[in-house]
Please model this.
Amino acid sequence: MIRPIFLTVCVLAASALTSAHAHSVWIEPNAAQQLVIRFAEPGDDFETSPGYLDNLSAPAAFTVATNKPVSVEAPKKSDHFLLAGASPTNVACAETTFIVRGGRKPVFYARWQPAGAGAEKPLLTLDLVPTGKPGEVRAYFRGQPLGGVTATLRTPDEKEQELTADADGFIHFKTGLPGQYLLTIPHYREQQPLAGFYNGAAYTGTSHNCSLVWVQPKE
Model:
């Protein structure tokens, strides 16, 4: 199983500045075909508990079975959050928040897309939504298409490429290789950020991060 990663993190400490900013949160099936939420940098070891995994809030997670979101529990394990009872054959989504650092509240959104699920609709504040067409995804923010945003695609051969959404939010790419893909948008910030408090810590803006994972079957 390839270890993709998504959703950015802010500074953990001065010595970990670069590492923190490269982290992602994503959903993938494990070896037992259970859907789990991972937190890490692409290609590196998963964050664990005790450890940096503990800096994420308990995820709000749900699956979509009959065109209706159904909440699922997401208990924390040693190196992941388990989407209890969720099946890889259904769409699954999750949202979690990292601790405030540097005046920013990082929020992570993750979507799992099973093969052949077809066109979807926005379900997360920042979302990468499959259109049902091979190699096409549409970016949305607060339910509206997000044009011009930059995304990163990690392919099954562990290579990365930067992609840019067109004016209508569509992102296009090739999916020739079978295996697991990870598409991410990190550090998206609203033009008019709202200040506030999270767990007693003040912040001046929110960093929105999202991921989409799917497994391309062999032809």
User: Anything to note?
Assistant: The chain has one helix and 17 strands. The CA atoms of residues 35 and 88 lie 6 Å apart. The two ends are 19 Å apart (CA to CA).
